[in-house]
Amino acid sequence: MDKGKPEAGKVYSLTGGTGTPSIASGNTWSESEVKEKTFRVTSFEQVVYEQIVEAKDEDQAVKKACEAGDWGNAESGEVISQEAEEIDGN
């Protein structure tokens, strides 16, 4: 059986686990090519926004800031966690 030849710039699985095509398992170079998959990456972050508003007290200040809704860019932030989920099924 002609297994073909590897191509420059591509990544191949020379050995692999059960069900993973690899050269050691007798698969062709083409079948053993490691292909990129598509992932959705979600970053959960805590951010800080600031607004300057004129008000009589803290409650009114918060209410005015929420009504204005002009929060602009975050002043600071911290990544809480990140996760990746494969979405193309390959």
Q: Could you characterize what this model shows?
A:
The chain is an alpha+beta fold and 90 residues long. It has two domains: 1-35, no CATH class; 39-86, no CATH class. It is built from one helix and two strands, in the order E-H-E. It has a two-stranded antiparallel ribbon. 1% of the residues are buried. The model has no long low-confidence stretch (mean pLDDT 86).
What is this structure's SSE topology?
Layout: E1 39-48, H1 58-68, E2 76-86
Antiparallel strand pairs: 1-2
Describe this structure in a few short sentences.
The protein is of the alpha+beta class and 90 residues long.
Characterize the main sheet: 2 strands, antiparallel
* Euclidean distance between termini CA atoms: 26 Å
Please state the average pLDDT score: 86
What is the overall silhouette?
rod-shaped
Number of strands: 2
Strand order of the largest sheet: 1-2
SS summary, helix count:
1
- Domain count: the total is 2
Into which percent range does the helicity of residues fall?
Answer: 10-25%
Properties at a glance:
1 helix; alpha+beta; two-stranded antiparallel ribbon; 2 strands
